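Quick one, T. Sequence first:
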Amino acid sequence: MFQEALAQALTGSAKLVRSIPVQAQDGQPALVVRVLPLFRSARDMMFGAEILVAATTLNPSSFVPSPTILMGLFDLTPAEVRLATLLGKGLSLKAAAQENGIKFSTARSYLDKIFRKTGTNHQGQLVALLKATQPLQV
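Structure tokens:
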């Protein structure tokens, strides 16, 4: 995913930021790597660079991020954010579907897309990732 994002950014075919989840392993925390194509004056500010790569570590907590943070970090749609937020708060997929007023099959489809976008494979992994996402403290 990272190589694809770099290739798209360098060829100019990518116009948006690309978020890439990296699972925690070997004692290292989970990350979100963002590939940002640079345009116009942004290139001048970054010494002529064509892309900017930023990595954000994720630390476990009981915090569930805001919809804006989820959309920005993982490129989730508003419908996917609503479902992910309810799952992060401890609801089952069936209960989250009912709460959202959608069919279970639709919720399952959203969850599959959320898994792809967050790099998770199981609902427990997703919830752990969501709880590990922290707002910036200044």
